[in-house]
Amino acid sequence: MITLSDRAVWSFPRGGRVENDVRFARPLMSMTDAARHLGIPQQTFHRWARGYPHGGPLLHVSEPESIRQASVPFIALAEAWVLEGLRQAGVRPQKIRPALKKLQNEFGREYVLVSPALVTDGISVLWDFSKTEAGAGLIEGRSGQTVIREIVQDYLTYVGFGTDDYPNHLKLRTFEPSKVAIDPYRSSGQPVFVGSGARVSNVAAMLKAGEEPAVVAEEHGIGIEAVRAAARVLLGRAA
Length: 239
Description:
disordered N terminus, 2 domains, elongated, single chain, alpha+beta
């Protein structure tokens, strides 16, 4: 697994190291599919996962043998979602790596993008760091500390945390008003419609095969709006 740091001492989820936890160790989808589900431009997601010319990756992904192979575990999906919130708030991801290292030292954990403390202490650390020579250009001039905190807080409402303070649930805003979520411990970690448990990928596959939306909806026990959401996000078209 690619890590943000080669330091050996970090806090890990209770019950074992990350390689023993499916949230961290099991790839769920390709980078292209991850970008699509999260509503992040594909090129942007790939840069975050592979790193910038002057820095390593910002997400914890594995190294796939091909671009279509699953390489994004649940934790990286949560990281990318929060990083997108920071980007929308005016934080420049291409400048954030030194700041992440500082946060890692402050929090004593590697997965700082998905720390519950990010929206409180973390934003303050990022703000103060942006005022230093090393952090110059990290935050856009139009952004204020309060605005950044509010936007990141909104993004974090889509992330559910376990008793170990690591994410264990992620709601996908791209499908709204339909409710779609990822639970790494259920349905092999694949996105499902809340309530019916139908996999979004199965719904999209039936549509792609030419089935009528009404038939697909009845087959999976979901509403027609949910079918249309699957078509819009995964197929890039109306149903």
